[in-house]
Amino acid sequence: MTQVHTRQVEVVGGYAFDVDVRADSGWQGTGIFVSPGEVLHISYLSGLWVGRIGDPFHGPEGPTYDAYPGGKNYPLPGVVEDCLVGRINQSVFYVGRQLRMPIREAGVLELTINDIGHYDNRGQITMRVVVTR
Ligand SMILES: [Ca+2]
What we know:
Layout: E1 2-3, E2 6-11, E3 14-22, E4 28-34, E5 39-50, E6 84-88, E7 91-94, E8 98-102, E9 107-113, E10 122-132
Parallel strand pairs: 1-4
Antiparallel strand pairs: 2-3, 3-10, 4-9, 5-8, 5-10, 6-7, 6-9
The protein binds calcium ion.
């Protein structure tokens, strides 16, 4: 697993991190450990990526042009390809532009693009991850 660049930033009432997620890599460890009782908030800050050279760049919501659901061997099957998805242990979930999710299982947050062919991907996006109790 790749370890991505994570920067801790100051926020009121919790701790927060800005995480760069690359399009040309599979699961990327954020180094952010979450525990039951906490709430995970993820929101889009900046950047664009693409899952195939020549297609229009887009954000973590996935393409709005020529979009298809991910196949059964994708990180999150049945959900639009090239969107941002997350994983804690074996539990995979859609992130997109924004997520608010209570934590039920302790683990490290990982992020990736919902794709299996990373060789033709370009760009990266930056997400803000806030963990509150
Ligand atoms: Ca691709």
